[in-house]
Design brief:
The protein is an alpha/beta fold. It has eleven helices and 20 strands. The strands form five sheets. An eight-stranded mixed β-sheet has the order 3-6-2-1-9-11-12-10, with helices on both faces. Strands 13-18-20-19 form a four-stranded antiparallel β-sheet, with helices on both faces. Strands 15-16-14-17 form a four-stranded antiparallel β-sheet, covered by helices on one side. The two termini are 29 Å apart.
Length: 421
């Protein structure tokens, strides 16, 4: 008997009928002879609805109380799912994150898992019951407070449970049939990937692919958890994510996928004295604001002035805090001004095959040039090339690049519920 961890996103449990469909799927897995642990997200858009409600009653909701509020969404979904499974003749028990032993640090809204002690989950399995765990949430042992893991936290919860319980596989159920070579809402002929390596999935997730979150992929890579991303609406095999290629899948392509991201903004620090230590001073201030920097470009300094410009990208939500700390540091740092631009889009091509194939950069830039799309910034890793452009041209750029690398499938991809989660 093998242990399988299954995670269901909000679109998979959006309403009562969806919950009953998922319950049948879980019950079938259990009746096939497997032990089953399920992680579930809040129903549909209920988390967003709770966030909107909080902002209706408070201009700046307290972070501790926000975590108390937001964790109710998963509690509703897990208890309803347990009821539906029991009606099918299979025992099921639901647990909050704290009851399931998800211990986290004390950061409200973006806590990180520090330990997992799933005693009650193991007891449920020993009693031949399906264990259902609320995703996205945990418990800090120091403050005794409920915490949330941030966006994608249910993915991370599922992978963490799979790691500590020694699951054969962690199945991530969503509303598309797997990981695609591009967002099927943007590129209708996006091709489903049979397999992707951890490193490719990490790059795709960090570049805007939404089907699984980067923290969950990193957790899976670190603990060698095999992931299977598939649809909760069909029985089709999805995309396997692991260290080694799954037997029977095709030879590794040069480019696995094209991802787009409009969640970032660009800050340009204008007129920075081009002397040792100034960049360190600026980015120390940025780090102090808690921002995660993505791309950085520094221009060549002008000979007459000895000044240069430094541009970097970061999550748009971090922009106001970073601007505030840099404005406060302007007299000491000695730069001229700041420019904030939240109308950018990032396109990334990702593929492990780039290591052994020349000409990928030239092919990318030629495709964008032929389409009349201008590039503002460039960043690379061993298996990724990212470029920044205007946000309004990003969808067309993704389609152009996807076609240029021969990734278009013969048939349109299917999105069963419309959100990609």
């Amino acid at each position: 008997m093998s242990l399988i961890v299954q995670k269901y996103g909000g679109s998979s449990v959006a309403d009562a009928e969806s919950i009953k469909r998922v319950a049948r799927q879980i019950a079938a897995t259990k009746k096939a002879g497997h032990d089953v642990v399920v992680t579930v997200s809040a129903m549909g858009d209920s988390t967003d609805d709770l966030i909107d409600l909080a902002h209706q009653v408070s201009d700046s909701p307290d972070s501790r109380e926000m975590d108390m509020l937001l964790t109710t969404g998963e509690r509703v979904a897990m208890s309803l799912l347990a009821m539906a499974i029991k009606d099918l003749g299979v025992d099921a028990r639901s647990f909050t994150g704290s009851q399931a032993g998800m211990m986290t640090d004390g950061q409200h809204g973006r806590a990180r898992i520090v330990d997992v002690t799933p005693t009650r989950v193991r007891q449920a399995l020993d009693d031949d019951a399906v264990a259902i765990v609320a995703g996205f949430q945990g418990f800090n042992t120091d403050s005794k407070d409920i915490t949330t893991l941030g966006r994608g936290g249910s993915d991370t919860t599922a992978v963490a449970l799979a790691a500590v319980l020694g699951a054969e596989v962690c199945e991530i159920y969503t509303d598309v049939d797997g990981v695609f070579s591009a967002d099927p809402r943007v590129v209708k002929k996006a091709r489903k990937l049979d397999w992707a390596s951890y490193e490719e999935m990490l790059e795709l997730a960090s570049s805007g692919a939404k089907v699984i979150y980067i923290r969950a992929v990193e957790f899976a890579r670190r603990h060698s958890v095999t992931l299977h991303v598939r649809s909760s609406f069909t029985d089709k095999e999805g995309t396997w994510i692991s260290a080694k290629r799954k037997a029977g899948t095709m030879e590794e392509p040069i480019i696995a996928g094209v991802a787009g991201d409009i969640s970032e903004a660009k800050i340009t620090v204008v007129g920075v004295p081009d002397i040792p230590g100034k960049a360190a001073e600026i980015f120390t201030r940025v780090a102090g604001a808690g921002a995660n920097i993505d791309m950085i470009v520094q221009n060549i300094s002008a000979q007459k002035t000895g000044l240069t410009d430094i541009s970097f990208t970061l999550p748009t939500s971090d922009g106001p805090a970073v601007l505030a700390v840099l404005e406060a540091a302007q007299p000491e740092a000695g730069f001229d001004s700041l420019i904030f631009d939240d109308q950018i889009g990032k396109l990334s091509v990702v593929g492990a095959g780039m290591r052994t194939n020349a000409g990928v950069s030239a092919q990318l830039f030629t495709a964008l040039s032929d389409a009349g799309i201008n590039i503002e910034m460039i960043s690379t890793s061993e298996i990724r090339i990212s470029v920044v452009m205007r946000a309004d041209v990003l969808p067309e750029a993704i389609r152009v690049v996807h076609a240029a690398f021969g990734l278009d499938a013969s048939e349109d991809a299917t999105v069963h519920a419309g959100t990609g989660r």
